[in-house]
Structures are given as structure tokens and as C-alpha cells.
From TrEMBL:
Protein name, UniProt field: ROK family protein
Database matches in InterPro entries: ATPase_NBD, ROK, ROK_cs, WH-like_DNA-bd_sf, WH_DNA-bd_sf
Family (UniProt): Belongs to the ROK (NagC/XylR) family.
SUPFAM superfamilies with a match to the protein in the record: Actin-like ATPase domain (SSF53067), Winged helix' DNA-binding domain (SSF46785)
UniProt keyword Cell wall biogenesis/degradation, yes or no: no
Keywords, sorted A to Z: Carbohydrate metabolism, Xylose metabolism
Short name of any one Pfam family annotated for the protein: ROK
Function recorded in the entry: Transcriptional repressor of xylose-utilizing enzymes.
Length: 392
């Protein structure tokens, strides 16, 4: 019995390896897979046949020969199933339906005012249901749902604390799984954003990157050697709470002078409000800066300076290749970037700065939804479902 189990496990692992190469390097031939994996051609052929039977791989005709018979090329069948990625924000929900390669097929966006947990979760479920309804027919259907959240989550799928939503200890994964009977993965929105940037954005070819999500607060997703760094107990990335003024104003986290008190969207709006004696929203500020209003441009430049102060700490502390700034403030790049870069030049250490790129996200507000869907897809392929189902 034991031996059979081990053999099945080996086969399962080999099959995942073969599928991984087809997913990342297609079109690819069987011979090439054997070459890069070290598996025998016979093993590769048998595993590929199973993957074709399970609709995850297609043959697409003959490729270039390196001498001898021309090989049949294999591609990953991205439309064998679909995933849903959700960014549950403080004021709106953005959800996308993607195929298994992460390509967006459908999008759904709705605003919420978070009157109650029940109402917002109901809207979340309605958004997911809407996209499930729009999904094309496929062999595997909806394989998973990933949800990025503005708070910290534990490994059991509980949202422990989301201060800007006012939520605590919500078993969100369980709530959504029970509704749809589809596997659900939840994570912090900055973690999901980092995964999205690594997979589809500026960080595509980068092994060490920090994605900084600038919203009401500031959070970071840290990718080290290609993997999301979660810290000892899953709570890494609360980078908005590094203190940049040791005796500064009190933060809601209990500390003093936290970075997000100076450099977040909330901080910007607060400065603007104090200056003009009335509340103003980000869209208005962006329009006014675009129209050349100097006092507003100065507000953005000041924000760029404060962003730089925190970014210097990240550069010196982590030595990343890439820092990607995301969130709605990406729209203010042209006023933020120059003060940020000049501060970086003045204050970061020369060696970690040498190979560094700092960019605003090109994915718009898509980093988190794309990352969330990527997480759902990764879980599907890591689960036994695919690897075992057709292993006979
Ligand atoms: Zn704080």
C-alpha cells in the first residue's frame, strides 16, 4: 500500500512539473520538456497524454525541428476553466473573471458605503455571482475565487482586522465558500497586488520586489526570490506603520509618527482640507492639479517627498530590484515622482540604489484583482484535483 502511495505521489509531482513547463513555456515539445525536466521521454509522453485527456493541454501542430522529425507542439489550454479575482476596497468592489492564464474576460465594479458587514458581504457575493453567470462554458467551470482585502488575514481564511472597514474576525473565506461551493483564498490587498505585479506588471521579470499600495493607509507586498514573503506568522508588509517621526502625531495603531500619517491618500486629503477649510476628494485635486493650480500641485509634491522618506527606508532595508507604487494615487505620478526620486538620490545608500527601479503601477487598479485571481489559480493547480484526477 505504502509503495503505491509513494509512486502516486511521484507521478503527481512529475505531472505538476510537466504542466508547469507547458503553462510557462508554451508552445513547447515533449522532447524539450524531457530535456529541461530530466524525465524520460516515455514518462513525459504518458503524463502529457493524461494532461490532454484532462483538457489542460492541447496539441497545436508541428514546430521547428532541431534535426530529425518535426515535433508536435503543446500549449496550455487556458480556457479549460475560469477564476474570479476580487478587490474588496473601502468604498468599492472590483471583480474580474479571468481564464487560467489570468487574462481578464469580464469585469464588474460596484460602489459600497459599508453600512454593515452583512450588506457589504451580500454585495460581494452578488458581484461574484454576476461574474459566475457571465463565465463561458468550460471543462472545470469556476475553479476558484481570490479576494484581496484592506486588512490582515490569517492562514485559515479569517479576516482578522480591517480598520478602514471597521471589521474584525470575519470568517470571510468560509462565508464565500459556503455560498458558492468553490474554493476561496483571501489575502491582504497589497500581497495580492504584489503577486499581480509579479505576474503581469512591471515586476514580471523580477525576483525581488516591493509593491506599495497607497490608499487610505499604506501597505506593502514583499516578494523575495520570486515568492511572497509573509513573515513568521503571516503579517508582514504593514509598512505604513514604520515610524518616520519618532515623536510625531499618534497613529491609530498606537505608535507615533507612522509613515501613512504623512504619505497616504488620507494624509493628502487631510492636508488639503486643513488648507482650504473644507473637505475635498482625490478626483477634484487631480483635476485642479491638471488645470495647473499651484497650491494643489504643491500638495502632491509634498506627498511625493513624504513617500520618498519611506521608500528610502525600504531601499536601504530590503535592497529590492523594483519598487512599484500602486493605488489611486498612481494618477498623480507626474507630480509625485520628481520629489520622490530626488529624495531617493539624496538619502538612500548608493549600493542598494544602483540597480533599483521605482515605478508607478501600469496595471491601474488591476494589480490586486489580477493577483487575487492568480492566487486562486495557483491553489487550483497545487490542489490534488488536477494532478490526481486522471492519474488512473
Ligand atoms: Zn501606525
Amino acid at each position: 500500500m505504502k509503495q503505491t502511495g509513494d509512486l502516486n505521489l511521484v507521478k503527481k509531482i512529475n505531472k505538476s512539473i510537466v504542466l508547469h513547463h507547458i503553462r510557462t513555456d508554451s508552445p513547447i515539445s515533449r522532447a524539450r520538456i524531457a530535456e529541461v525536466t530530466g524525465l524520460t521521454k516515455a514518462t513525459v509522453s504518458s503524463l502529457v497524454n493524461e494532461l490532454i485527456t484532462s483538457s489542460l493541454v492541447d496539441e497545436i501542430g508541428v514546430g521547428e525541428s532541431s534535426g530529425g522529425r518535426k515535433p508536435m507542439m503543446l500549449i496550455f489550454n487556458g480556457t479549460a476553466g475560469y477564476a474570479i479575482g476580487v478587490d474588496l476596497g473601502v468604498t468599492d468592489i472590483l471583480a474580474v473573471l479571468t481564464d487560467l492564464t489570468g487574462q481578464v474576460i469580464e469585469e464588474y465594479r460596484v460602489e459600497h458605503d459599508n453600512t454593515s458587514l452583512e450588506a457589504t458581504v451580500a454585495l460581494l457575493k452578488a458581484s461574484i455571482r454576476e461574474l459566475i453567470g457571465r463565465a463561458p462554458d468550460s471543462v472545470y467551470g469556476i475553479i476558484g475565487i481570490g479576494i484581496g482585502l484592506p486588512g490582515i488575514c490569517d492562514e485559515d481564511g479569517n479576516l482578522l482586522f480591517a480598520p478602514n472597514l471597521g471589521w474584525e474576525n470575519v470568517p470571510l473565506q468560509q462565508l464565500v465558500e459556503a455560498e458558492f461551493d468553490i474554493p476561496v483564498v483571501i489575502d491582504n490587498e497589497a500581497n495580492a497586488g504584489a503577486v499581480g505585479e509579479k505576474q503581469f506588471g512591471a515586476g514580471k521579470d523580477t525576483a525581488n520586489l516591493v509593491y506599495i499600495s497607497i490608499g487610505i493607509g499604506i501597505g506593502a507586498g514583499i516578494i523575495i526570490k520570486g515568492e511572497l514573503y509573509r513573515g513568521a506568522t503571516g503579517f508582514s508588509g504593514e509598512i505604513g506603520h514604520i515610524s518616520i517621526q519618532h515623536d510625531g502625531p499618534k497613529c491609530r495603531c498606537g505608535s507615533l509618527g507612522c509613515w501613512e500619517l504623512f504619505a497616504s491618500e488620507h494624509a493628502l486629503l487631510e492636508h488639503a482640507r486643513l488648507e482650504r477649510g473644507e473637505a475635498v476628494d482625490l478626483e477634484t485635486l487631480l483635476q485642479q492639479a491638471d488645470a495647473g493650480e499651484q497650491s494643489v500641485i504643491r500638495l502632491f509634491e509634498q506627498l511625493g517627498y513624504y513617500l520618498g522618506v519611506g521608500v528610502v527606508n525600504i531601499v536601504n532595508g530590503f535592497n529590492p530590484e523594483f519598487i512599484i507604487l500602486g493605488g489611486r494615487l498612481a494618477g498623480a505620478e507626474k507630480w509625485l515622482m520628481q520629489p520622490l526620486q530626488s529624495l531617493l538620490k539624496q538619502r538612500s545608500l548608493p549600493h542598494p540604489r544602483k540597480q533599483l527601479n521605482v515605478e508607478f503601477s501600469k496595471l491601474g487598479d488591476g494589480s490586486t484583482v489580477l493577483g487575487a485571481s492568480t492566487m486562486a489559480i495557483a491553489r487550483f493547480f497545487a490542489s490534488s484535483q488536477v494532478s490526481v484526477e486522471h492519474s488512473g
